[in-house]
Write a structure and sequence with these properties.
Blueprint: H1 5-16, H2 18-23, E1 30-38, E2 51-58, H3 61-82, H4 103-117, H5 136-141, H6 155-164, H7 167-170, H8 183-202
Antiparallel strand pairs: 1-2
Helix pairs in contact: 1-3, 4-8
InterPro entries: Amidohydrolase, Bact_exopeptidase_dim_dom, Peptidase_M20_dimer
Protein name: Metal-dependent amidase/aminoacylase/carboxypeptidase family protein
Domain Peptidase M20 dimerisation: 4-78
Length: 208
C-alpha cells in the first residue's frame, strides 16, 4: 500500500546521471553529484521519506540553470511515476556565484608577481571547480577582481611533481587530511603576495 522512498530515491539517482551525459552540450562543463542518500533506520520498515544531497558545479550560469531545471523535472517526474502523493521538497543552500577574473586586473597582478617572485614561480591556473564566496563582495560593489592560488610545497617536491605532470595529484590540497603546507616560506610568500598585489595599485614604483 506504500510508495517506497528508497526505491524512488534510487530511481532518481540513476536518472540524474543523464543530466551531464545526455542533456549537457559537449564542450560545456557540468558536474551533478549525489553526495548522500539518507532513508530509513532499519531493514524491515519502509521509511516515510528519503533525502538526497546534491552538488552542482559549472563554469556557466546558463549551464547551471539548465542543470537545476533538469533536476527538478526529473525528481517530479520520478515521484509522479512512483505514484507518490507527497510533492517533493527542494531546498537550495551553499550557493556561490561564478568567480570570473577580470583580464586587466589579472594581467596587472600577474606582472607584479612575475617581477617580484620571478617567472618560474608564477603560472596561470586552470579553471577550478572549487566553491568560493569571495566574488560576492566585489560583485556587490561592481569592482573588478582577480583570485589567485598559492602553493605551499617544498620547491624540490613541487618541481618533481611538475616534471611528472602530476603536481595537483601528488601535492595534497587544502581539503585533504594530508594537507600540511611548509610553514616557511609559505607564510612569507603569502604575505608578500598580498603586499605586492596591493602595491601594484596603491604605490606606483614602490618596492617590497
Amino acid at each position: 500500500m506504500s510508495v517506497d522512498p528508497v526505491v524512488l530515491a534510487s530511481s532518481i539517482v540513476l536518472r540524474l546521471q543523464t543530466i551531464v551525459s545526455r542533456e549537457t552540450k559537449p564542450g560545456d562543463f557540468a558536474v551533478v553529484t549525489v553526495g548522500a542518500l539518507n532513508a530509513g533506520a532499519t531493514s524491515n520498515i519502509i521509511p516515510d521519506r528519503a533525502t538526497l544531497l546534491l552538488n552542482i558545479r559549472s563554469y556557466d550560469n546558463q549551464v547551471r540553470a539548465r542543470a537545476l531545471a533538469a533536476i527538478e523535472r526529473i525528481v517530479r517526474g520520478e515521484c509522479a511515476t512512483a505514484g507518490s502523493v507527497q510533492e517533493p521538497d527542494f531546498e537550495f543552500y551553499d550557493q556561490f556565484p561564478l568567480t570570473r577574473n577580470d583580464e586587466a586586473v589579472t594581467a596587472q597582478v600577474t606582472n607584479a608577481f612575475t617581477a617580484h617572485f620571478g617567472a618560474e614561480a608564477v603560472s596561470r591556473a586552470t579553471p577550478q571547480t572549487a566553491s568560493e564566496d569571495f566574488s560576492r563582495i566585489p560583485d556587490a560593489f561592481g569592482v573588478p577582481y582577480t583570485f589567485w592560488l598559492l602553493g605551499g610545497a617544498e620547491p624540490d617536491t613541487y618541481r618533481a611533481a611538475v616534471a611528472k605532470g602530476t603536481a595537483f595529484q601528488d601535492i595534497p590540497g587544502n581539503h585533504s587530511p594530508a594537507f600540511a603546507p611548509v610553514i616557511n616560506p609559505t607564510l612569507s610568500m603569502g604575505v608578500q603576495a598580498q603586499v605586492v598585489a596591493a602595491l601594484s595599485y596603491l604605490a606606483k614604483g614602490a618596492s617590497l
